[in-house]
């Protein structure tokens, strides 16, 4: 008889100070599913409660979240989502990263064919203390508002949010990311899940599914996953060339 063993996710947080560690432990809602180690190499959190590649921490104050982010810095593999005291730490997997990278390339290819500027900012941390919400998208772009932020050190307190956020969902998130993006005010969200691309626009503070992109209304949404799937057989660059040809065909028609 085989016994199913839940996958254990380990998240390493090098550089975490003793002060931040103590603040985290004071905030953290006690749960026997967590295993926490603090030593000279920093902080390590492991859990088997939430499935592969995800650790969820409850009761975390905004100040503790900011201290963790400050201590660890940008050189880390994991990404975050934070909503009113709940902090999710997620490790990207290959099955998650490949579609994300291709979607980025497709957006850039469209921009080239249109001869417009876009600004890709990857997993830029989008956060608002007043809303107690933060998230790192798999990728994000300034498109319609690119000119407003070109050459700037972006400050989301005064600058617009990215026009487009991309989420490649291979593992199930423990937080409702739609509600975080909606509260922050990102106008358009692409979600790639189970070989389907779903496009949402922000309407009256909530996301509504639509059959076209706000940034690229001519883009045949239903065809995009086909190019991602083709890349597995013919290679990413070949699939991208086919996509460029398809966009030229649409624009010339």
Topology:
Elements lengths: L8 E5 L4 H10 L6 E6 L2 E6 L6 E5 L3 H11 L6 E5 L2 E5 L3 H21 L4 E2 L5 E3 L4 E3 L3 E4 L3 H4 L14 E5 L8 H8 L3 E6 L2 E8 L2 E5 L13 H11 L1 H17 L1
Parallel strand pairs: 11-12
Antiparallel strand pairs: 1-3, 2-3, 4-6, 5-6, 5-9, 7-10, 8-9, 10-11, 12-13, 13-14
Helix pairs in contact: 1-2, 3-7, 6-7
Architecture overview:
This protein has helices at about 20-25, 60-70, 95-115, 145-150, 175-185, 225-235, 235-250; strands at about 10-15, 35-40, 40-45, 55-60, 80-85, 85-90, 120, 125-130, 135, 140, 165-170, 190-195, 195-205, 205-210. With about 250 residues, it is α+β, with helices and mostly antiparallel strands. It folds into two domains: about 10-90, no CATH class; about 95-250, Alpha-Beta Complex (tt1808, chain A), CATH 3.90.1570. The strands form three sheets. The chain has a six-stranded mixed sheet with strand order 7-10-11-12-13-14. It has a five-stranded antiparallel sheet with strand order 4-6-5-9-8, covered by helices on one side. Helix 5 links the parallel strand 11 and strand 12. Helix 1 runs antiparallel to helix 2.
């Amino acid at each position: 008889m085989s016994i199913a063993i839940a996958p254990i996710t380990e998240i390493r947080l090098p550089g975490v100070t003793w002060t931040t560690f103590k603040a985290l432990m004071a905030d953290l809602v006690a749960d026997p599913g967590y295993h926490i180690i603090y030593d000279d190499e920093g902080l390590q959190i492991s859990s088997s409660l939430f499935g592969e590649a995800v650790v969820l921490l409850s009761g975390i104050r905004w100040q503790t979240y900011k201290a963790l982010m400050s201590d660890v810095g940008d050189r880390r593999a994991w990404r975050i989502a934070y909503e009113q005291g709940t902090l999710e730490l997620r490790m990207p997997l290959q099955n998650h990263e490949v579609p994300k990278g291709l979607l980025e390339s497709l957006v850039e290819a469209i921009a080239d064919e249109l001869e417009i500027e876009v600004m890709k900012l990857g997993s830029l941390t989008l956060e608002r203390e007043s809303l107690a919400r933060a998230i790192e998208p798999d990728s994000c772009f300034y498109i319609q508002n690119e000119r407003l932020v070109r050459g700037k050190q972006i400050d989301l307190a005064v600058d617009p949010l990215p026009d487009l956020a991309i989420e490649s969902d291979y593992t199930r998130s423990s937080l409702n990311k739609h509600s975080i993006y909606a509260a922050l005010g990102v106008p358009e969200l692409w979600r790639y899940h189970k070989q389907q691309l779903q496009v949402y626009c922000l309407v009256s503070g909530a996301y509504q599914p639509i059959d076209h992109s706000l940034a690229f209304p001519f883009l045949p949404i239903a065809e995009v996953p086909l190019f991602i799937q083709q890349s597995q057989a013919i290679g990413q660059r070949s699939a991208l060339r086919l996509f460029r040809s398809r966009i030229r065909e649409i624009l010339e028609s």
